[in-house]
């Protein structure tokens, strides 16, 4: 609060960490923290000290509540100041939300600390979407990932938030936020983890900025045309790169149809760029199929297909694109290129597709599905910085698959999420049958 000035400057949330880490770990210190803050604010005539004290109370009320023995006194103190102080009134609301939602696991994030220091008790956070658009949403200390997802779904008029997830991109990793986690807790945990993994140089701790993405993660109940906004903003833009990388088994005829629809999404009904198709094949045709026809043949076939759909809007073209891919077993898959040494009958380099059917091993050249492991057959899995390991069937007699990959953490998370959803659905169905 500045009553005893420090001999050195402390940056970021160093001071707030020092204050809040202990009470978050030990319940008994929470009352002590509130008592000390209230004591230092009572009769305090130093304006700067008082302002900083209220900033700390604001952070405290969003982190943990006092015990039931002290709650009444804390509320009386906050309400006695709320008529004349906007921050005190906000502290009352924050404390009520903390009582409902439970305490945080980590001290306030730097974003929260900087917000209250700038006298801003509303924090707006930008979320990015696959169609390259973005919007800002209010995020509170008590906001869990599930709440954030629902707010986005409501704003974008999606029919459901089911299957969608927040993803945080920090350094070279993109990590899904568990729906039950407090948003700022997860980001704080992730930032601390990255900092520990990348130690400071010359005594300077590296600062890591992060971006928040909102995307479809689990494609269990995704049917093109069922949720138009989801198709237009998310499904099309998430599926397009997978097609162009050549991950799906796609015939030349389907590739022509899809290319004409991709062209229509880009240019609408404007046919003036059709003569340039041979130069933009990488943006229209799967990478593994480009050499199947010469550029002029592609141009002629795609132009003919485009003219058949005259008058179709770009948004309708997106849905038409999805309806073709929906018929493939690999629709809605997350693809991973890995190396494996455990299955002698399969190529060393494999394409793994994780989708609602399970884990599918795909030949990297023919795109044939070599084998599919349904989630019910997978008994164990683990991952590290360089590997992903999975056991199929009995832990003792079952087969094992060991993959060399830097994306093991993503495969692990996706498998965990699909199996968790499967078990939740099974339990719901059992309950409904009993009723």
From TrEMBL:
InterPro entries tied to this protein: Band_41_domain, FERM/acyl-CoA-bd_prot_sf, FERM_2, FERM_central, FERM_domain, IRS_PTB, MyoVII_FERM_C2, MyTH4_dom
Residues in FERM domain copies: 123-426
Subcellular location: Cytoplasm
The MyTH4 domain, residue ranges: 1-117
Cited SMART domains: B41, MyTH4
Pfam families in UniProt: IRS (PF02174), MyTH4 (PF00784), RA_2 (PF21989)
Keywords: Actin-binding, ATP-binding, Cytoplasm, Motor protein, Nucleotide-binding, Repeat
GO cellular component assignments: cytoplasm; cytoskeleton
UniProt entry tagged with the keyword Heme: no
Primary location: cytoplasm
A GO molecular function held by the record: actin binding
Record's keyword annotation contains Repeat: yes
Entries under PANTHER family matching the protein: MYOSIN (PTHR22692:SF33), MYOSIN VII, XV (PTHR22692)
Family named by the database record: Belongs to the TRAFAC class myosin-kinesin ATPase superfamily. Myosin family.
Name of the protein: Myosin VIIa
Species of provenance: Ridgeia piscesae (Tubeworm)
